[in-house]
Structure formats: structure tokens, C-alpha cells
Design brief:
This protein is α+β, with helices and mostly antiparallel strands and 330 residues long. Helix content is 32%, strand content 29%. The radius of gyration is 21 Å and the shape is elongated. The chain binds biotin. The site of biotin has 20 residues, from helix 5, strand 5, strand 8 and strand 9. Biotin is lined by residues 98-100, 122, 125-128, 131, 133, 142-144, 186, 196-198, 214-216.
Length: 330
């Protein structure tokens, strides 16, 4: 087990309570079934309560779940995805610095293709371009998906777009909200960011060892920090209701698996097509570009075959954007 990951016994405790939801499970029975002392069980119950899991204690009778918990422990996630390739192995942390950092440490044996690292809270969540990622406890999804694709490092940009398409699809099907994708893969609702994706990899010149798709989705945040309010939001803030993170995560993993197979079967063009259909930024969008120390404005004129964004600058020059960031000019 990776150091610091959730003890599999806590996972079994949650599973046991969820399996027996609505009945009171005696403390000694829990302790015996999961192989922990009664005082440890009590400590874990307290830990779960601190994460918002509603567990009622009945004096001398035991514990009872008041509603199905929204913690992303392996047994609950796997129960949603019985035949999955992406998510067949889940590594869960209640708290870690960054799920991407944890995923990048995994070797092929501990982190085979399809492994997903999840945290309820990140203390040093990392964003693109060296930024931080705000990772409020139990409100968002903080997940890193390990892929070991039979592709060359040149495919990394297309995997980045693939992740955006997958989130776009998952958000739509889990919430009914209409999402957009800002190149390369920020997912927006009503013009504000609800999801950021940090793609990292380990590779040799001609071989990808591992790609980590680090995905942060703001799900149930009831407010955003002052400095982010103008540019970021959560699914709950946009719809006025909260969502099961477990359900959104399951949709996300199914969606990544779907588009990953589409990429292997049909090639880059299929992902470029899906991205272009999902994003209002693909063509005809007036944008400001910040890339490689340059700052200019122009209009988007589609993706090339590798997923780079074509821009016609206001001064008439054509640019091909492989990295950097854009914002809409209104
Ligand atoms: C961005 O700047 O838009 C990318 C944000 C990526 C955040 C996610 S949360 C899970 C994973 N772990 C990290 O440290 N970062 C990514």
C-alpha cells in the first residue's frame, strides 16, 4: 500500500455501514468484521463524521448510517464501476499534498494502467502554469488517472484534450448543466471554470511510460474564495443543488474510458472532432492569448490534427498554439 493511503479497514467500515444502511450495526460486530479494536472503530467513525458522513450512534446498540455517504473510498467507487478498466484500482487518501504527485510516484506494478488516485482534500493541489488548485475538503473531486498508453510522447496533447472532452460529457450527463471547454481543457459552466486538468507524464524520447490526467472538479462548494469568485464556480453554485460526488466521479471515469478507447480505435481525428463539437472556443471566438512571453489578441480558427489551436491574430499573423492560455474577449 502507498504510504498514507486510507487504511483498507476504514474502507471496509464504510462499506459495511453502507451495506447495512438504515439498520444499527453493533460496535463489536463492526470491530470483529473488519479486524480492528472497538476504540479504533470509534476513532474512525469520528474521522468519517468530520468528513460529513452522517453516522448516528445509538448508546449500547451501535452505529447507523443516516444516509449513504459521499466519500470516495475504493469499495464504494468500485461498486459503481464493476467492470471498469479505468478505476479497477483505486488509491484513496483522506488528505494528501497532491494526487498528481502521488500518482507520479507509482511504478508499473503499484500503478498499472487505469489506476485512479483520489483525495478528499489536497494540501498542495497543483494547477497548470505553476498555479495552486483550491481543494476544499469533501466538496470537490480531486483525482489523478494513470494511463499507460501504447502511444508516443507526441500524443500527450491529444490526451489533454481527451480529458477535457470526458469531463465535459460527464458534467453534462451527471448534472444536466451545459458545459463548455476553453482550450486546452478548462471546463466552464456559465463562463466560469468548474474543472481544471493538469496532464503530466513520464516518458523517453519515443516511449510514454505513464500519463497522469489530474482532474479537479468543483462540485459542491457553497462559495468560492474571494480571489476566485470572478473566474471560478462550482456545479452546486450554478444549479442551486448539490450532487453525489460518487456519481459524478463514476460518470467521469466511464467517460474517460469511453474516449480513451475511441482514441485507440479511431485515432487523433476523433478526439479533435469531439473537442471541436463540444467547445465554443474552437472557431470564431475572439480571444486574448498569453503564450511564451507573448500577449496578443485574435480569433480562433480551429484545431490542427495534433490538437494545437490555430489563431488568426488581429495583426494578420497566423499562430499555432501548443501551450499557453487564452481568455475570451467580450
Ligand atoms: C488547472 O490549473 O486548471 C489544472 C488544475 C488541476 C487540479 C487537479 S486536482 C487533482 C490533481 N492533483 C493536483 O495536484 N492537480 C490536479
Amino acid at each position: 500500500m502507498t504510504t498514507g493511503t486510507t487504511d483498507h479497514k476504514i474502507d471496509r467500515l464504510v462499506h459495511l455501514l453502507a451495506k447495512n444502511a438504515t439498520v444499527v450495526v453493533p460496535g463489536p460486530k463492526i470491530a470483529e468484521e473488519i479486524g480492528a479494536s472497538r476504540s479504533t472503530v470509534w476513532e474512525w467513525i469520528e474521522k468519517l463524521r468530520a468528513l460529513g458522513v452522517a453516522i448516528k450512534g445509538h448508546p449500547r446498540r451501535g452505529y447507523q448510517l443516516e444516509k449513504l455517504p459521499d466519500v470516495l473510498v475504493p469499495s464504494l467507487v468500485r461498486a459503481e464501476l464493476p467492470h471498469a478498466e479505468i478505476g479497477h484500482k483505486i488509491i484513496h487518501f483522506f488528505r494528501t499534498e497532491s494526487t498528481n504527485s502521488a500518482a507520479l510516484e507509482l511504478d508499473a506494478q503499484n500503478g498499472p494502467h487505469g489506476t485512479v488516485v483520489i483525495a478528499e482534500e489536497q494540501t498542495a493541489g497543483r494547477g497548470r502554469l505553476g498555479r495552486n488548485w483550491y481543494s476544499e475538503k469533501s466538496s470537490g473531486i480531486y483525482a489523478s488517472i494513470v494511463l499507460r498508453p501504447p502511444l508516443s510522447p507526441a500524443a500527450a496533447p491529444i490526451l489533454t484534450l481527451l480529458a477535457g472532452v470526458a469531463v465535459h460529457h460527464a458534467v453534462g450527463s451527471a448534472t444536466g448543466l451545459e458545459a463548455d471547454i476553453r482550450w486546452p481543457n478548462d471546463v466552464l459552466v456559465n463562463g466560469k471554470k468548474v474543472c481544471g486538468i493538469l496532464t503530466e507524464m513520464k516518458a523517453e524520447v519515443d516511449r510514454l511510460h505513464m500519463v497522469v490526467l489530474g482532474i479537479g472538479i468543483n462540485v459542491n462548494h457553497s462559495s468560492m474564495p474571494e480571489e476566485l469568485r470572478e473566474i471560478a464556480t462550482s456545479l452546486a453554485l450554478e444549479s442551486g443543488r448539490s450532487y453525489s460526488r460518487l456519481h459524478v466521479l463514476a460518470e467521469l471515469l466511464r467517460s474517460v474510458e469511453h474516449y480513451y478507447h475511441m482514441l485507440l480505435r479511431e485515432g487523433h481525428a476523433a478526439i479533435v472532432r469531439e473537442w471541436s463539437a463540444a467547445s465554443s472556443y474552437a472557431e470564431g471566438k475572439q480571444v486574448r492569448v498569453k503564450a511564451g512571453g507573448n500577449d496578443y489578441s485574435g480569433v480562433t480558427v480551429g484545431l490542427d490534427a495534433s490538437g494545437a489551436l490555430k489563431i488568426r491574430r488581429d495583426d494578420g499573423l497566423q499562430e499555432l498554439l501548443v501551450t499557453g492560455e487564452i481568455s475570451e474577449l467580450r
